[in-house]
Amino acid sequence: MAKKTRKVLKQESQQRAIQQARSNVSMAQAAAVAEAQRAAAASASARAAKPAETKVDDHRYVRSDLRRIGLLAGSITAVLVVLSFFIH
Q: Buried (b) or exposed (e) across 19-55, using 16+ Cβ within 10 A?
């Protein structure tokens, strides 16, 4: 069987390049559509988000609980420091 000529090899190479370019374009279009759908979903969820005031109302007790926990931790630490001087 005879070898393929350079002309035939060049034509086949060009055809492969064209096919690859087409597949790249279709993949890019699919990615663009997916990105547009994600952006639309993100903007829709942003519009559907509740106002920040409801979150503040739901967590009114947190500040007092954190203060109570901090005072308890500080007093325990102070007791441990004082005891470290007496228990040697």
A: eeeeeeeeeeeeeeeeeeeeeeeeeeeeeeeeeeeee
